[in-house]
Amino acid sequence: MSNIANILSDTNSTMNKAINHLESELSKIRAGKATPSMLDGIMVEYYGNPTQLSQVANISILDARTISIQPWEKSMLQPIERGIMAANIGITPQNDGTNIRLFLPPLTEERRRELVKKCNGEGENAKVSIRNIRRDAIEQIKKLQKDGTSEDECKDGEANVQDATDKFIALVEKHLVAKEKEIMAV
Fold it and tell me: What is the residue-wise DSSP string for 17-45?
């Protein structure tokens, strides 16, 4: 039984990672107001090395639609601008010689729908990951059955894997509904 328990434990933790990844991707999709987390994952060239934007500049929120980026070194203005453009977050940086400002345009109905579509795409990726994890777990259980584990134990194991899959798919849906509500709120 312990082998099946190990498989179930691994399956749950891997599915949890898929949910965590989804949450991180959804947090990057802006819902109208400026947050420093929108710039998470943006890399800039710092002395020839790709470096997180947050490690070469202060990022602050001036108001609901403006992010200010103040590099610690003036020479970093251009690389930061390039990094933001390369990240393709849909905002053009404004460089005033000492700071870079990002002005978030107000969201149009069309843009909101695009963002919801993007969220749904991320949700679909998460569901595919979860289903792949389920498939791998069930293959491992079938292998155990061939190696002599009883059929009943394996059937129970497969049912537990399916229960976990259903639970995590429902969690993905819950995240998507919440994010869509946040985006569509005017």
Answer: HHHHHHHHHHHHS--SS--GGGGTT-EEE
Closest CA to 1 of 170, 132, 155: 155
Q: How many CA atoms lie within 13 A of 184 on its CB side?
A: 10
3-state secondary structure of 47: coil
- pLDDT band for 32, please (50, 70, 90 cuts): low
Instruction: Please tell me whether residues 23 and 59 are part of one structural domain.
Output: no
Q: List pLDDT tens digits, range 108-141.
A: 888 888 888 989 999 999 999 999 999 999 999 9
Average pLDDT over residues 7-25: 92
Domain boundary among 83, 103, 123: 103
Tell me which of 55, 71, 103 is where a domain ends: 103
CATH of the domain at 48: 3.30.1360.40
What is the biggest distance separating any 2 CA atoms in the chain, rounded to whole angstroms? 71
Domain total of the chain: 2
Q: Rounded to two decimals, what is the model's pTM?
A: 0.68
Structural domain span for residue 90: 36-103
